[in-house]
Design brief:
By secondary structure, the chain is of the alpha+beta class. It is built from six helices and twelve strands. The protein has an eight-stranded mixed β-sheet.
């Protein structure tokens, strides 16, 4: 995998359900590098730290390979990297192959795959329709959050090199689909609750379905 673009957002004011809010969904490419910190990307806007940022969601990765599909559906929008709110747009990122717990060296940072992204209404704001949420879930390739094990700088053109392959075979895509399955697959549930790289609160939530 290779970094196509490194992206951050400035604070943007929006109106949602009659209330004024701040969002960081409008990310765009930066010139130069971004610094991946333990809790967030330096200089990036995180409006609601209850659901974004923190040790398990310090940085969001999305595959540039999915862009043609979405451009085909939303070609009328103004497109640039960072469209999905990702900090790093990656070439050849495949969520059906990347495991929860895999460790990558990206630039000078060391990161661990922690959990798939779950879409919220702010993605709908970026795409001018909340319909995108259902479509995003159905598509099944959500990108991934990572935990930052070693802080470091990442620049477009840097490679993402696998340093450690998780022994637990649960992939990012498997985990994402598991979240939304009405009838949750028992084998995937077992892998999820046993995967210590997945945040404890997610494992605790899934454990009730075993």
């Amino acid at each position: 995998m290779k970094v196509i673009s490194a992206n951050t957002a400035k604070a943007t004011t929006i109106i949602w359900n009659g209330k004024t809010e701040i969002t960081g969904i409008y990310k765009y490419p930066v010139n130069g590098s971004i610094m991946l910190g333990k809790e967030a990307v330096a200089g990036d806007t995180i409006a609601d730290r209850r659901v974004h940022g923190g040790s398990h969601k310090a940085c969001y990765l999305f595959s540039g390979n999915h862009y043609p599909y979405w451009k085909g559906r939303y070609g009328h929008l103004s497109w640039d990297w960072g469209m999905f709110g990702e900090n790093l747009s990656l070439e050849d990122m495949d969520e059906s192959q990347i495991r929860i717990g895999d460790v990558y060296r990206i630039g000078t940072a060391l990161v661990q795959v922690s959990m798939p992204r779950e879409p919220c209404y702010k993605l709908g704001l970026r795409f001018d329709t909340q319909r995108i949420l259902r479509e995003f879930i159905s598509f099944g390739y959500p990108g991934s959050y990572v935990r930052v094990l070693e802080e470091g700088a990442v620049t477009a053109g840097d490679k993402a090199v696998l340093e450690f392959r998780s022994e637990n075979p649960l992939t990012v895509r498997d985990c994402f689909l598991l979240y939304y399955q009405k009838e949750k697959a028992a084998d995937l549930l077992k892998l999820a609750v046993e995967n210590t790289a997945l945040p404890h609160y997610k494992r605790e939530y899934l454990m009730q379905y075993l």
